[in-house]
Design goal:
mainly alpha; globular
Length: about 400
């Protein structure tokens, strides 16, 4: 990892993503807390994630095919500064004492539109500045540092709400996103061909990206698996605030501490994977990860002791890192360079489809049958996904990729 940190390009990219990760942590926390204070509704919490995810899916459909022809540096900078501008509205309205749920929903919509542009752009940019043999370590470092910033982010957010108020936290959030754009601006400008426009060109670009999935269907099934996992995550994440406040007896600080659990575990998992000499057999590692998460999630709904719930959440994050990092590296290694932006965008589009559906159904189910039954259902769903991975011959192709090495393009 020392050689990566000696690269100024990688350091700028790492710093920009770290600031973005901290800003994202603050935005998720403050929006969830304020909305639950305003409405007290679990359905409203699920709707917040729906407003965040759905516009992003639409943006992905139309922007993805052109991403490879855009200057990725400019895309990342624009995303950060537009997000900063979006949160100026609720920050101003809260300062004036006129904040309503619509202001939080609008900020979620704009932020959600930027995420599917920023994420694939940054993932594609990594593969352009890092050698293939260093991708696992680079991804582990990026994911680990980003999640490290999220360790103290929720705790600071909870403390800030208690001590200095939510308004100050919103202004800090705006500043972090603006600074992220400034740091990413230190990256070199890319020379790109001018993108074609029109419906015919859009269809052509989409076709080029989807042909890869047709040629290697194992990657399509990997996207479907990620969609199922995100469906479960979508049902779980909006329930964190009501779970901690209603079942664990916590306040904003406890919500912040609990929210640290997943990124802490994820960072530990990323560190462990980055220090390993080999990545292991992909399918076996993913099955173990999914089954462990299934058991942990099923147990979580029936825990009423905060320290135990926190430790379980750490373990969930640790197992999730094993799946996410291997999944990302798989695409970076096997997708041709000129298609990575399009394939990453389509992959993210496919995986993200499950999240808004899970958020809405999770909010409804949380209201109707309660959080314990909801978490048990989530665990059962993850276990089902693990069984599918185990018995499906399509997923066994992943082992063959490791045996034969890189695909020929």
């Amino acid at each position: 990892m020392k050689s990566l940190l000696k690269s100024s390009l990688f350091v700028f990219l790492l710093s920009g993503q770290a600031l973005s990760g901290l800003g994202g942590t603050f935005s998720t926390f403050i929006q969830s807390w304020l909305l639950y204070e305003l409405t007290g509704s679990k359905i409203a919490m699920g709707s917040l994630w729906l407003y965040f995810m759905l516009p992003g899916i639409i943006i992905q459909i139309f922007s993805g095919p052109y991403l490879d022809r855009w200057d990725l540096r400019k895309v990342m900078i624009a995303c950060q500064w537009i997000r900063a501008g979006a949160f100026l509205v609720p920050a101003t309205m809260l300062y004036m004492g006129e904040l309503h749920s619509i202001h939080l929903y609008m900020a979620a919509i704009v932020s959600g539109m930027m995420e599917p542009l920023f994420r694939p752009a940054s993932m594609s940019y990594v593969s352009r500045v890092v050698a293939k043999e260093q991708l696992v370590k680079a991804n582990s470092l990026l994911e680990g540092v980003t999640n490290f910033t999220m360790w103290f982010g929720p705790v600071v957010a909870g403390w800030a709400i208690m001590e200095v108020g939510a308004s100050s936290l919103l202004w800090v959030l705006v500043l972090l996103l603006f600074l992220s754009g400034l740091v990413l601006g230190r990256l070199p400008v890319e020379k790109k061909e001018e993108a074609s426009t029109g419906v015919a060109s859009w269809v052509k670009e989409v076709r080029e990206g989807t042909l890869f999935f047709c040629q290697y269907p194992a990657f399509l099934w990997m996207g479907l698996l990620m969609m199922w996992v995100n469906f479960c995550a979508g049902a779980f994440l909006p329930m964190i605030v009501p779970y901690v406040t209603e079942f664990l007896g916590g306040g904003p600080v406890e919500v912040g501490i609990y929210s640290v659990g997943f990124p802490l575990g994820f960072a530990l998992g990323a560190l462990i994977l980055g220090l390993q000499k080999g990545s292991g057999r992909l399918r076996d590692a993913m099955i173990v990860s999914l089954l462990l998460q299934a058991v942990l999630m099923a147990c979580l709904g029936w825990v009423r002791f905060f320290p135990l719930a926190f430790m379980i959440e750490v373990c969930v994050g640790l197992t999730a890192a094993q799946f996410v990092i291997r999944n990302t590296t798989l695409y970076q290694q096997y997708v041709p360079a000129h298609l990575r932006g399009r394939v990453f965008t389509l992959r993210m589009l496919l995986s993200r489809l499950g999240f808004p559906v899970g958020a809405v159904l999770g909010g409804v189910m949380g209201e109707l049958v309660g959080i314990p039954a909801l978490f048990t259902t989530i665990g059962t769903s993850l276990a089902f996904a693990g069984v599918i991975v185990w018995i499906s011959p399509m997923y066994r192709q992943l082992d063959k990729f490791e045996e034969v090495g890189l695909l020929e393009h």
